[in-house]
């Protein structure tokens, strides 16, 4: 063992690695100190300012100079110092593209039986090799040392190891030279690496490449193909999927089970520029998948959470990409089966479209509808609920069955609350609970009312427990549309506690019962979501309470407690003696305690305070100053700020209130649908099974579709491939093989007249009155 290896200046490391090296390169293993706090800093991927670390793990080295050699009794001759290569020299050469300095590198490696992948030639803090270093230092898209390094590795029979050597630290773990070349948008370099056995499925799964709520990171799906797609390199994507060496697998998944489509969903951010890039790349990859494997259904691939790209977009609130996927319409015949929207017929701005309901409607498990309403924590999910076909789909469910059931439940709840109110109002006033049953008509009715009220509380409690168990909503979801679920739960629990207190003989049951009664009537607002105007108004009330009232109450309670404590302390001195030796009257009892003082100060807040009772105080003027200051801060400042904030909140959320109301009503619709028998759910199933064209195999492409008729002024002059030739002819499900260009108004008017004449000659019962009647 060489002397430098026994250096005790550094504390021992927990690991012990065994490597071979000679005395000429032992200096590369000099130890570098840690940071002042003893922790390792986050190293950069590569930096021209911060040099690589020398903090190697302890090694056991063998000095080859002391090994016997035939025909030479002692030591072999030392290598010329100019031909000795350490890590720093190699890194310096590749950084400066100094090919001449590396001229003797292969000779040195062969002479010393070393490889460029040995640990002594890497950065110990990141695992960075000389090839990775060269990849970060390109000039005009190339570094002349890269082909030389690859040639040396090929002659040393470790080419694959060098090309696929990756970062090893926790931040950049798994990143290879291929990832860097793709990030540099350098197709020739990618081609060179692929030619030299680069792994096209290497996963960059370090902390920097994971999605974080805090800190800087870039999640792109870990795989080289996903990186090319997420950085908008279509040519790179096409090359990785079709090259002479190793083609990337479109179904390959990262450590989270995400494919390239999932990665595109996760990098979307709803901005206009990002949406344009992501949607174009998304569609192009789908089209490429048809060429690679016509039977491949890439959009149906799920990640480890069981989410398809569409469901992932719904869960994460990627509204623009979600809208694009739902309403994607491709007119090219060879790619038409990739569409989820099919224009059935158009007349001017009127469009009748068929939307694919696969994975959208609730007849499938873990549908998109359920994901948006019950499983998404996105703050903008109310914007997704108004997109087509979801908007019309929910409207149809509401009209077909949900509205009638909802109104029936509303009437039953009103009846329940009336019984609850009458029963509470006619409670016995004399004696101690539990009261004996006297057999009178009044007692009999009260007993029946008590039983109904308690059974109702048990039913409400069970429903809410089932709701929380199935949905398991986060706090954010509860704050968005779960207020009433919490209030219903509290109503049931408090009412049952009141019944227990009554049976235990405690008069506390009255307070609990009255509190439950108040909450019960407040919960009547839940049923306002069945009516648009009152539902929107209820949303505004909820948002105002959460956004403004809570902040106001927090600040107000701070002021109230602070001034109450000050006034109680100020009026708490010993009573003073009067001039005739008698004691003055005690300080007004209004400020005799913290509770009483808080109540008196609250009167000042609502303008009912009295300043006349503090004449005998020792610090009268200072007392008056505190009261006036309190009035200014609360009655004048806080209350007016509250009014201004509430006005601003109402103006701000007025546009969102309707969408939030629709989201709340959607939750009600799906809850009602869940409790329907399977036979009724099948009966109320939306949509129709239609053939929307041929599959790549040539067989009919049958899907469950939902028809939506809408006014689209912005796209009525675009080329649209119609399934039906004529407006209203929705019985014909024949697919037009080529897109038709809409003609002028004169053509449509003339055609409408001809159609009208034809209809006059047909029997009345053979003609559909409107497209919606079909």
UniProtKB/TrEMBL annotation:
This is Ion transport domain-containing protein. The chain crosses the membrane at residues 406-425, 445-470, 482-502, 508-528, 549-570, 622-645. GO terms for cellular component: plasma membrane. Residues 16-51 have a biased composition (Basic and acidic residues). ANK repeats lie at residues 173-205. It catalyses: Ca(2+)(in) = Ca(2+)(out). It comes from Hymenochirus boettgeri (Congo dwarf clawed frog). Residues 765-774 have a biased composition (Polar residues).
